[in-house]
Design brief:
- The chain has one domain: Sandwich (Jelly Rolls).
- It is an alpha+beta fold and 199 residues long.
- A hairpin with a 5-residue loop joins β6 and β7.
- The chain is built from two helices and ten strands.
- The chain is elongated and about 85 Å long.
Length: 199
């Protein structure tokens, strides 16, 4: 009975962990700017040597991942870049961005995904104040690798304050199953090899 109870508890904990949302915050999440001095980088691949940037988010974890930040045009924070790694055997199957305006003007935003070599994988432009698809249809899932995500005001756009949340779904890639007849085929080939040796 104890064994069954332990198995139920373990399964419940595993299910809870698998469905948990992994969240990365740009700052310590208090209103009015960056009290800790931390900000996502303003350019792709920027260094973290000065200790003020938080642009390496580590590994994306299976399930839902949220990355939360803001653009503060009034404080010259007009771009956010960060990167993370998708591990072998996993893929990002969807990514959306929700934006909320903190002013009266409605800016146009650009979202970009680049690979490790700086090549653009996906690019999307949209008007702030709603939900947009960060991973356009037809671009396919993001498989194992390191990806730079960028969000910035489009050229010529107004630059008010914008809060944003990117939500991505990471799935484990199912292994390709062996065809049901493969073991029979191998057994048949082995039998032919044995017959050939006897001759």
């Amino acid at each position: 009975m104890k064994l069954i109870l332990s198995a139920v508890v373990a399964a419940t904990l595993f299910a809870t962990a698998a469905s948990a949302v992994t969240t990365a915050l740009e700052t310590d999440a208090v209103s009015g700017g960056f009290p800790t001095g931390k900000d996502y980088a303003n350019a792709a691949g920027a260094s973290k040597d000065d200790g003020s940037l938080r642009n390496d988010l580590g590994n994306a974890l299976p399930g839902e991942n949220q990355i939360i930040g803001d653009l503060r045009g009034e404080q010259d924070d007009v771009a956010d870049w960060f990167y993370f790694t998708v591990r072998t055997g996993e893929e990002i199957v969807s990514a959306t961005i929700m934006t909320e305006l903190m002013g009266t003007s409605v800016p146009n935003l650009m979202g970009v995904i680049k690979d490790e070599d700086g090549g653009t994988i996906a690019s999307v432009s949209f008007t702030a104040g709603g939900i947009a698809n960060y991973l356009p249809s037809g671009s396919g899932p993001l498989v194992a690798g390191t990806y730079n995500f960028g969000l910035f005001f489009a050229e010529g756009s107004s630059t008010p304050n914008v809060d944003w949340t990117i939500t991505s779904q990471v799935s484990q890639i199912a292994p390709v199953p062996l065809p049901a007849g493969l073991p029979l085929l191998l057994a048949g080939l082995g039998g032919l090899a044995v017959l050939r040796r006897r001759r």
